[in-house]
Amino acid sequence: MKKQFKLTPTRLEQMQSELEYLKTVREKEVADLIKEARSFGDLSENSEYDEAKNEQGKLYSRIAEIEEILQNYVLISEEADSTDAVGHASKVRVLDLEENEEDTYTLVGSQEANPAMGLVSDESPFGRALMGKKVGEIAVVEAPEGKFQYKILEIIK
């Protein structure tokens, strides 16, 4: 079974737009780079040509990656289902019991994760530990450095 990617409507739209841009504008730009590099002569010693071909490879790789995601996605709501338990799109205020520090995170699909901005993937060890927990419960995160405990302080809609 193929992996399913969880996307919010906003992220779905962003990915569709990126794919359109890559297949139209960027693909033409890269083709022009290759054409120009070919005009410089001997391809065996032409670093511009090599660089343009590398860029083309990266472009086609990204197009294939986005197409794979768009063929196997599950749409999730950008609104938290409830504030009773942590789920997709939940914004959660937690207390790190070891450091005695509070932080707020939002659970998102893996394609939207950005821990520096407080967006945590539901597939990450931290996200999996939070899923289904209620206010007052302790989420235990197992990491290579050991186990970390977080108390759920609030689930914000």
What proportion of the residues is helical, as a percent range? Answer: 25-40%
Number of helices: 3
Label the structural class.
Answer: alpha/beta
What characterizes the major β-sheet? Answer: 5 strands, mixed
Give the overall shape.
Answer: elongated
Q: Give the H and E element order.
A: EHHEEEEHEE
Strand element count:
7
Amino- and carboxy-terminal Cα gap: 33 Å
> Radius of gyration in whole Å, from Cα?
22 Å
Query: What's the mean pLDDT score?
Result: 89
Ranges with pLDDT <50 over ≥5 residues?
none
What is the topology, as strand order, of the major beta sheet? 5-4-3-7-6
Task: Describe, in plain words, how this protein is organized in 3D.
Strand 3 and strand 4 (101-108) form a beta hairpin. The chain has a 5-stranded mixed sheet with strand order 5-4-3-7-6. A two-stranded parallel ribbon has the order 1-2. It has 157 residues and is an alpha/beta fold. Helix 1 runs antiparallel to helix 2 (47-71). The mean pLDDT is 89. The chain is built from 3 helices and 7 strands.
Task: Describe the SSE topology.
Layout: E1 5-7, H1 9-38, H2 47-71, E2 73-75, E3 91-96, E4 101-108, E5 119-121, H3 125-130, E6 138-143, E7 146-156
